[in-house]
Amino acid sequence: MDLASQIYKRKSCRKYLDDEIDMTPIHEFMSNVKPLISEICYSYKVLTKDEVSIKTMWSAPYYLAIYSEKKENYGLNVGFIFQQLSLYMQSLNIGSCWVGMGSVKKKNPEFVILISFGKSNDLKRDISGFKRKSLSKISDAEDEKLKAAQLAPSAINLQPWYFKHTEEGYDVFKVKHNIVKRKIVGKWNDIDIGIALAHLYVSNKDTFQFEFKNKSDIKGYAYIGSLKI
Ligand SMILES: Cc1cc2nc3c(=O)[nH]c(=O)nc-3n(C[C@H](O)[C@H](O)[C@H](O)COP(=O)(O)O)c2cc1C
């Protein structure tokens, strides 16, 4: 299964067909997915559009409701795990989109975020269709290996990540927002970073390692963790 190649053609899907989907491959994939932080319990449910309340102008036949223990860095873990699933679904011609602007009707304190999904005829693009910051804006090293992270999706396409090279790999940082922006997108930024790490993981499966070290912030960015790719 080549998930890495999906990174270069995927896009957020907002136009769905009503076709039914066999969920078996999805559940099978999830039983083998790699977490970033194995100590955090999480779960998911497949819901229909009647079971969610969404503020988007479009809707999908299915929604994945994601739940997690709210331990430190749970957002990173959620982004990391479920972006692998999103890439897998893309490989099955199932389109998906992270949906921050929505919730489950059946309230649950562990609810984190939704992902819409469904069959679609509009789920691919070529590389020129990506609107992303340049590598030099997201890193101090113009390393082609970072391209997978550069192309990662993020809430409102903010791309809140920065990669600073180290002897072993990279330290990853998250942009510090002012209080207004933090209120709007703050809770999604950890998920965004987890998504970018998932892209680096699927592209460097045998070498990827991630750990939290005790390092300082840099100007405008908060230290998140250190990786080898
Ligand atoms: C955490 C998160 C939340 C998002 N929330 C929404 C949303 O509520 N509505 C929407 O239309 N797109 C949403 N998106 C999709 C982003 O707008 C999209 O990923 C970004 O603009 C980049 O475009 P691309 O995914 O097509 O590459 C979200 C993405 C992420 C990662």
Characterization of this structure:
This protein is α+β, with helices and mostly antiparallel strands and 229 residues long. It folds into two domains: 4-119, 3-Layer(aba) Sandwich (NADH Oxidase); 131-228, putative nitroreductase (tm1586), domain 2 (NADH Oxidase). It contains five helices and ten strands. The protein has helices at residues 24-31, 74-91, 135-138, 147-150, 179-203, and strands spanning 42-48, 52-54, 62-68, 94-99, 102-104, 111-119, 161-165, 170-175, 209-211, 221-228. The protein has a four-stranded antiparallel sheet with strand order 1-3-6-4, with helices on one face. Strands 7-8-10-9 form a four-stranded antiparallel sheet, covered by helices on one side. A two-stranded antiparallel ribbon has the order 2-5. The radius of gyration is 17 Å and the shape is globular. The mean pLDDT is 97. The chain binds flavin mononucleotide.
Q: How is this structure best summarized?
A:
The chain is an alpha+beta fold and 229 residues long. It is 26% helix and 25% strand. It has five helices and ten strands.
Radius of gyration equals 17 Å
What order do the SSEs take from the amino end to the carboxyl end, as H and E?
A: HEEEHEEEHHEEHEE
**Main beta-sheet annotation:** 4 strands, antiparallel
Low-confidence parts: none
